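User: Hey, my collaborator sent me this sequence without any context and asked if I could get a structure. I don't really work with proteins. Can you help?
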Amino acid sequence: MKTTILTLALATVALLGFTASAEAGSGHHHGTPSWGHQQPQHGHCVQPVYKIRTIEVCRRQECRTAYYPCGRPYTYHVTIVTYRDIYSNGSSNTYTRTLS
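Assistant: No problem. I've predicted the 3D structure and written it out in structure-token form, which is a compact way to encode the shape of the chain:
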């Protein structure tokens, strides 16, 4: 486990170092100022990715058990909702929220 974490950390540091040096010495100057805009590279524009919408995929109720300080159990209900975010590049991200 420690080896995996260490390998991942070293790879991340190496990637960040490579990206910074590649940007610093890329030599691609288009003569226009960059006020937060993406500059075209190699003949094509890099479009920013943004969230288009969020949809509710599933909603369900669960019965859960908790305990009083004296040790006596009690039950309560929670609602579990699964959402999916759809992004402009066609990707999506699914996540779950628990509502009490």
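In plain terms: The helical segments are 2-24. You can pass these tokens on to your collaborator as they are.
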